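Exercise 7.
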Amino acid sequence: MKNTPIIFALSLATAILFAGSSEACTGSPSMAVEDACQKATTGINETYSQCMNFLQAAPREAEVTVYAVVAAGKWAFNEYAALRTEAGEDPKNQSLPAELKDAYNGCLSDYGATKTALGAALRKMDACDLKTCSGDFDAALSGLEKCRVRLEGLQNVGATGFLYENVLADKGRTTLAYSLTRLAAN
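Solution. The predicted structure, written as tokens, is:
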């Protein structure tokens, strides 16, 4: 969690760098944010709307790499907030059933791996090494999927609904960043 502001600052700095340079990543297309969202989400209304929401702070016209960095940075900024709030890092919280505590602790570990993988992808995007990010995004999505599965089986044990929805949203942001990175690399 201590590195989250650093990763977010890195992603914003990278986005500003990309936005200010016409040749930030040679070969990466420039387009309007609406066009990037259309292509990255294949025009599905709900995911298109999410893309536009995630990228509202991005420049209206930029290299697609900027959009990928902003999407990944938005995830990095929000990644632990819901999990830490709901799971509570206070080990004295006796009100949670043991199964739920175990799931939350597993999710904290899964999110740690996801954060590491996403950080690696951001560093590669910063270096314009877009074609080698896929393994990092796969690892990030794998961590989120592990957490989702942990929580899915516990819907009847405790209040996991809010956290489950946040895990799905994080998967959506990560998938969007991945799709935009693939679009930028082509």
